[in-house]
Specification:
This protein has helices spanning 26-37, 54-57, 78-83, 93-106, 196-208, 232-240, 242-251, 270-283, 287-290, 300-317, 321-327, 345-348, 395-398, 410-413, 447-468, 477-492, 522-534, and strands at 16-22, 42-45, 113-114, 119-125, 130-135, 140-148, 170-173, 188-192, 211-216, 354-358, 364-368, 371-374, 378-380, 383-386, 401-403, 425-426, 429-434, 472-475, 540-543. It has 563 residues and is α/β, with parallel strands linked by helices. The relative contact order is 0.13. The structure holds flavin-adenine dinucleotide and NADP nicotinamide-adenine-dinucleotide phosphate. NADP nicotinamide-adenine-dinucleotide phosphate binds at residues 65-66, 153, 159, 192-198, 200, 217-218, 338, 340-341, 359, 387-390, 443, 502, 507.
Length: 563
């Protein structure tokens, strides 16, 4: 835990860094460790009161990862990997937070992190080629590089119900859950949102509360997690095979060591198809997609076979046929919204103390006193839980006033949707790196693997520049355009853009619709990034800034000494 007696490591007013890191979750912690070990002078700023990122904020009941913990963890330290024992297949939030706190302590990271501090603005100064960073703590520092580790799913979205403030009961947000215990015993609770967060929280709250009303706008395809304790034998096997497991993650499309499939769902008999689905359903987790058929995400008819398998399961588990139908998703192809994992989700709707409210049919109209009003009923509640999601992919960066070359504002650059080269760099914003930024595989791959890959690439690039006396790097606009175009082509060959998902920004009123995740597969993306670096950072302009006081002349041919 953070030592409260320690002074906050805020820099001196005039302090200059090699890199300022925004955020101290999986990405920020590893970036700090890696860059500091390479001799860079680094400072991280974190809005939260401690390390952990997502796992600090999303403290809601039932929160856990949906990639197995032995993949959803760092690989950079073999000793850490061997020492840490996960207690379950999918660790719960407190355990993941404990792990990240352990990482911070083990590698002595806290001394370079200013907590409870929001980075408010980052402005590129063309005279010095330095970023000027201002924080809510009053810090004004300069830095050669910015490494944004501000997160893809970290900017909480509050629903825009005009009368919400009129609600007099308790209000909780899954994405900003209080760190003290919340006891719903004996209370009438309502929850809005049936994405992954809602799906995890609903069975736990239902078991505790006197009554739970679930306000569902869109039914989701919920897959079984098949969570369970790690046994010692399996833990030993994983630890003996970690090198193999991690190598497989790095080479695979989703950064998880699943087997993949070369078969179309439409080229096998109905019986065979059912058998394949049943086998992976029994295994649990995202194997239902990764290890069944290769066209579930590209062919609507193939996709529908998987969707129908899940609907049949819902009808089998849920006793009341009307409730079962309301829970059956029909608005989007399966997997085009992130399918939540949950072992008890559907069975929860058989409980006498749970009511499903279909707010797609009968929308929420008002809040008054302790009542939520829908178009045709009123629900008396003591507490309301909002599991209403995030301004994903771009929200965290856009909440900072970021200005690049020529005063270009990031919010105007991204006004029609995000643009980025490789998800790592943005034309017009020199020396700003984004970890798992838009148009990288980010949220469609196991994220710690993606985070480590990006941090390593950025650290190699910064070292390359230092070795050659270069201090300015910027993505070329043409390379960015081509990458965005290529990413769009890959996405448009899939069913993903068909759903009104947070992947396309459809959950945020007014957000331009753009699918900003790279779907070409993590393994091939990682190889591509490697090639770009090897080819002298193709698509990037690297040079000595005119203002640089460095004396060394870069040895690389492409480095230009002047504009
Ligand atoms: P984050 O963990 O989001 O950390 C970003 C940090 O930056 C935050 O602490 C935030 O406070 C800070 N920050 C942002 N803006 C500022 C600012 N202006 N100033 C200062 N600090 C700032 N992914 C998977 O692959 N598998 C999973 O099982 C999985 N489970 C998830 C469960 C939940 C509940 C959620 C919400 C996400 C999950 N994800 C999962 C996705 C998750 O985003 C990543 O796995 C991972 O946590 C990302 O780490 P990060 O460090 O990049 O970002
Ligand atoms: P989400 O997937 O965006 O779900 C938000 C839910 O709230 C949806 O059901 C949405 O309905 C509903 N909603 C939003 N605004 C609403 C409004 N104004 N009125 C009524 N309903 C509203 O968000 P999330 O559940 O927090 O998950 C986000 C992502 O975080 C996940 O997809 C996943 O990547 C990650 N995550 C992972 C885990 C895990 O298992 N490890 C857990 C939590 C989160 P619509 O669908 O109609 O928009």
């Amino acid at each position: 835990m953070k030592d409260e007696a320690q002074p906050r490591p805020h820099p001196r007013a005039d302090e200059q860094f090699d890199a300022v890191i925004v955020g101290a979750g999986f990405a920020g912690l590893y970036a700090l460790h890696k860059l500091r070990n390479l001799g860079f002078k680094v400072r991280a700023f974190e809005k939260g009161g401690d390390v952990g990122g997502v796992w600090y904020w999303n403290h809601y009941p039932g929160a856990r990862c949906d990639c197995e913990s032995y993949y959803y963890s760092y690989s950079f330290s073999k000793e850490l990997q061997q020492d840490w024992c996960w207690s379950q297949r999918y660790a719960e939030q407190p355990e993941i937070l404990r792990y990240l706190r352990h990482v911070a302590d083990r590698f002595d990271l806290r001394r370079d992190i200013a907590f409870d501090t929001i980075v408010e603005s980052m402005v590129f100064d063309e005279v010095t080629s330095l970023w000027i960073v201002k924080t809510s703590g009053g810090d004004v520092v300069t830095s050669r590089f910015i490494v944004s580790a501000a997160g893809c799913i970290s900017a909480m979205q509050k629903p825009d119900y005009p009368g919400l403030t009129a609600f007099e009961g308790e209000i909780y947000y899954t994405a900003a859950w209080p760190h003290h215990e919340v006891d719903f015993s004996g209370k009438r609770v309502g929850i809005i949102g049936t994405g992954a967060s809602g799906v995890q929280a609903i069975p736990i709250i239902a078991a505790q509360a006197a009554h739970l009303a679930v306000f569902q706008r869109t039914a989701n395809f919920v897959l079984p997690a098949r969570n369970g304790p790690m046994d010692a034998e399996f833990d030993a096997w994983v630890k003996a095979h970690y090198d193999e497991i991690r190598a497989k993650c790095l080479a695979s499309p989703g950064a998880v060591p699943f087997e993949g499939s070369h078969t179309s769902a439409l080229e096998v008999s109905a019986e065979e198809r059912q058998a394949v689905y049943a086998r992976t359903w029994a295994l649990g987790g995202l194997r239902f997609f990764a290890e069944t058929f290769n066209d579930l995400i590209t062919d609507e008819a193939a996709n529908e076979t998987a969707a129908e398998f899940v609907r049949a399961h819902i009808r089998e588990v849920v006793n009341d046929p009307k409730i079962a139908e309301t829970l059956c998703p029909d608005s989007h192809p399966i997997a085009t919204k992130r399918p939540p994992l949950g072992d008890d989700y559907y069975a929860t709707f058989n409980r006498a103390n749970v009511t499903l409210v279909d707010i797609a049919k009968s929308p929420i109209t008002a809040f008054s006193g302790r009542t939520i009003h829908t178009a045709d009923a009123g629900y008396e509640l003591d507490a309301l839980v909002l599991a209403t999601g995030f301004d994903a992919m771009t929200g965290a960066l856009l909440r900072i006033d970021v200005r690049g070359r020529g005063g270009l504002e990031l919010k105007s650059k991204w006004a029609q949707g995000a643009r980025s080269y490789l998800g790592l760099s943005i034309a017009g914003f020199p020396n700003l790196f984004t970890i798992t930024g838009p148009f990288s595989p980010s949220v469609v791959a196991n994220m710690p693997t993606g985070v480590e890959h990006h941090v390593d690439w950025i650290a190699d690039c910064m070292t390359h520049m230092r070795d050659r006396g270069l201090d300015f790097i910027e993505a070329e606009a043409e390379a960015e355009d081509q990458w965005v175009e290529h990413s769009a082509q890959v996405a448009n060959a899939t069913l993903y853009p068909k759903a009104n998902s947070w992947y396309v920004g459809a959950n945020i009123p007014g957000k331009p619709r753009r699918f900003s995740v790279y779907l070409g597969g993590f393994g091939s993306y990682a190889k591509h990034c490697e090639r770009i670096a090897h080819d002298d950072y193709e698509g990037f302009l690297l040079r000595v800034s005119p203002a640089s006081t460095r004396q060394e002349v870069p040895s690389v041919a492409r480095a230009a000494l002047s504009d």
